[in-house]
């Protein structure tokens, strides 16, 4: 199989990550507010247990596609840096950090969903833990997006609007991380939602560019 086909599969991996995580979010339902009562949170785990377990599985599967997608983005960033690997390394570390914390948050939710009746009043503590982990993932994703798109603007790797969308999404994740890891204000979750939507659109845009610039697609 020639290299251009692997590159195109990487583009599909980026799209798959977005689609699978959106499906997982839909199956999980609307989460309670960070400062919701223990009873409301316990009911959420009881009602949406299957969806939360599915979200972990779909998120993990989507992460396989995301790692493959980043392989192609890495090559693009490496060429833009003439092999210096400064911002590309920062981007990789940020994505790895953000992804690990995201999966940890989903794992906490799935674990509680397996035995919701055994958690009782502790549901709020575990739910807060999942939110803090998810919010903290915003630090890593902010690093990834800011490093990638600063290079994107400097080296004109992407259309200007797409690079700025990545910067704005990174800043939204940063706000979410600061608020969500230090307070139980709903503003943290709102900022994270904005960051995720912007990141998803950015991912799809970058995936389209990767796909369209392969020799087979151009032909």
Termini separation comes to 17 Å
Radius of gyration: 18 Å
Helix content: over 70%
Unreliable residue stretches: none
User: How many β-strand runs?
Assistant: 0
Query: How much β-strand is present in the residues?
Result: under 5%
User: Given the helix and strand composition, which structural class is it?
Assistant: mainly alpha
Given the C-alpha coordinates, what overall shape results?
elongated
Mean pLDDT: 89
Number of continuous helical runs: 8
In this structure, how is the largest beta sheet organized? none
The ordered string of helix (H) and strand (E) elements is: HHHHHHHH
Describe the SSE topology.
Elements: H1 3-28, H2 38-47, H3 49-80, H4 87-114, H5 123-155, H6 160-182, H7 186-212, H8 215-218
Structural summary, described in words:
There is one protein chain. This protein has helices spanning 3-28, 38-47, 49-80, 87-114, 123-155, 160-182, 186-212, 215-218. With 219 residues, it is mainly alpha-helical. The longest helix has 33 residues, at 123-155. The radius of gyration is 18 Å and the shape is elongated. The protein starts with a helix and ends with a helix. The model has no long low-confidence stretch (mean pLDDT 89).
Produce a short descriptive summary.
The protein has 219 residues and is an all-alpha fold. The protein has helices at residues 3-28, 38-47, 49-80, 87-114, 123-155, 160-182, 186-212, 215-218.
